Amino acid sequence: MKIFLQADKIKRFLKQIGMRKSYFFMAMCLSLLAAFFEGVTAAVLIQFVKGIISRDFSFVKELPVFNMIFSEHSYTSNAQNTTFFLMLLGTIFISMVFKNILSYLSELAISYQAGKVADGLRRMVFQRYLSFGKMFFDHTYIGRLNNILMHYIGMIIIKLKTANSIFTQVFMLAVYIIIMFVISWKVTIFVLFFFPILNKMLNLLIYRIRKTSESYITSYDMLSHNISNILSCISLVRLYSNEDGEKKHFAYLSSQLRKLEFSLDKKSGLIKPLQEIILLLAILFLVFVMSFMSIKEKSVEIASFMVYFFLLRRAQSNFGVFNNIKVSIAETKGLMNEVMDVFEDKDKFFIPDGGETFDQLEHSIEFNHLSFSYEKGRQILKDINFCIEKGKMTAIVGPTGSGKTTIISLLLRFYDAPPKSILINGKDIRDFSVKSLMTHFGYVSQDTLLFNDTIRENITYGLKRIIREEEIISILKKARLYDFVLSLPKGLDTRIGDRGIKLSGGEKQRVSIARALLKKCEVLILDEATSSLDSKTKKLIQEAIDEAVKTRTSIVIAHRLSTIKHADKIVVIENGKLIEEGTLSELLDKKNKFYTYWEEQKFS
Ligand SMILES: Nc1ncnc2c1ncn2[C@@H]1O[C@H](COP(=O)(O)OP(=O)(O)OP(=O)(O)O)[C@@H](O)[C@H]1O
Ligand SMILES: [Mg+2]
To answer: What angle is formed at CA 21 by the lines to CA 18 and CA 26, rounded to 5 degrees?
Structure first.
């Protein structure tokens, strides 16, 4: 029952991804036709064997279809026998050829549809990934998402392709059983009696496979997580000379996977031999029964008797078809669950998208009693109230971990802020569509947000308009990056490695600034990276920032004194609370917390 429920879920899921039934229907029709020709082959084979045994093929002219061909001709006995012999042989050959062509076409139909499903599924999963809130990505690891998208979907598609052979097998089995019934219904009923016994024996094994398959997925994920984790922090491994430790840990995870893989193979591998043994026993018993019947009752002809075993032997592999379906479903269950989980809305932390289009910042961005926590039980922001005015530069300062970046992440809709806690032009930020908001915001993040691609691709990323070379050069100059790019042999087309690994901290920051400048956004947000820079780089970055904030509304999270000198307003955050706010001179006059920071010359 559970299996059928699972199958139902899969069916619904396939429908959801837009699988067209027509291809399956076509494949089914082709399989049905192929089965028909298989039946023709078997039926003619019986006559063929009968003729060989009796050395007389004259009965052929009485047979259906053949009687129409031979009614008008008369042959001499010898010529007749040879012609009939050749006719039967030819019919067997032709119907076998037809059967195989039809099976091939049916396979093609399925393969085409499976390819389309794979493509559709990959697109849908990727699209889903892009729609999840940032919180979802904070809670998972990229290796797992990659596995789902590439590996699991691929495996599911392979299973889908085998669905075709399952159709064929079911139809063939039906044809075999019909012919076997015609030959001897008594014996066939006896044969069919073995299905439930075989099923019962295999069910237990299937249950075990399903359990192993789930643990296999977990183990596979752990291994792939380990690979990406370690390889992305290779310097740390070197620094702590922990190669041996990592090798050991990897070997442990890898051998766990191997053991589960072997256990899975061991169990699924048992199914075939078990089937074989049980069927062989059945056949031996049948040989005994049929020999007895043919001698005693003369009810079964020798020819039919021979063909019966031929069919039984051919049907043997098809008898397991229903179990094969179960095994296939059992094996894919773990994979399907992972893929289908992507389509469940639970824990995806979607960001509600408002219906209103954001046109421009009219007067201000207001934080209104903003409180926020990433996880239950640990409040990060506590009742924050302040205003960012249009055209002004607002600086946010405060100790590390005080919640500065969190404020920006909420403003940029990476996380969902409580209703009415962030207002733009007096309206709740949640009322605006995220897309329209984002076209007006530029962001230089504290962490490196760089693709493993060229500098050009990185700074022009996502821009829909045509960007002329002169514009890029002018931006590079503004971001104080021009001389650096000129010094590179490949200039703008230099690849910068994973997360910009081939660039220095200062260069990475300036590439990010150049990207934000090229976006020509209305509100620019700069979250200064804390990495300590030499005085020359500091100066370059300062110049780039000054240039960037010149003519627009800007929010700058500053760690350096020089950055906030020109700010129109400074907001001081400590431990998630706003503790002071004002212009530089106002804050210095107050001689409060900010004054202490100022005296210490640090803001984080
Ligand atoms: N994605 C997250 N999930 C859970 N907790 C988080 C997450 N991001 C940040 N935090 C926590 O929220 C607190 C505030 O972090 P935030 O990054 O806003 O600090 P910050 O003021 O920007 O610090 P810094 O000056 O070091 O950049 C920190 O204690 C941090 O541990
Ligand atoms: Mg920060």
So the answer is: 145
Q: What is the pLDDT of residue 563?
A: 79
Cβ-based neighbour number of residue 538 at 10 Å:
15
Of the given ranges (28-32, 94-98, 290-294, 501-505), which has the lowest mean pLDDT? 290-294
pLDDT at 383 over 80: yes
Q: What does the pLDDT read at residue 3?
A: 46
Whole-number Å distance, alpha carbon 503 to ligand 2 midpoint, is 21
| DSSP symbol at 400 | T
Q: Which ligand is nearest to the CA of 530?
A: 1
For ligand 1, the distance from its centroid to the CA atom of residue 46, given in whole angstroms, is: 80
Chain mean pLDDT for the chain = 83
Angle between helices 505-518 and 535-549 (to 10 degrees): 10
Mean pLDDT on 95-118: 88
Asked if residues 117 and 14 have their Cβ atoms less than 8 Å apart, the reply is yes
Task: Look up the pTM and report it.
Answer: 0.75
Closest C-alpha residue for ligand 1 atom 27: 400
Residues in CB range of 588: below 8 A, 6 or more apart: 594, 595, 598
Task: State the angle between helix axes of 469-478 and 535-549 in degrees (0 to 180), rounded to the nearest 10.
Answer: 120
The pLDDT, as a whole number, for residue 2 is 46
Coil/strand/helix, residue 525:
strand
Which of the two residues, 454 and 192, has the higher pLDDT score?
Answer: 454
409 Cβ below 6 A of ligand 1: no
Mean pLDDT score, 245-255: 93
Contacts for 141-145 with beta carbons within 8 Å, 24 or more apart?
A: 141/225, 141/228, 141/229, 142/228, 143/221, 143/224, 143/225, 143/227, 143/228, 143/229, 144/221, 144/224, 144/225
Whether 234 has a pLDDT exceeding 90, the answer reads no
Biggest CA pair distance of the chain: 128
Query: What is the set of domains in the chain, with CATH numbers?
Result: 2-342 (1.20.1560.10), 352-440+525-532+553-604 (3.40.50.300)
Contact 191/243 with Cβ under 8 angstroms? no
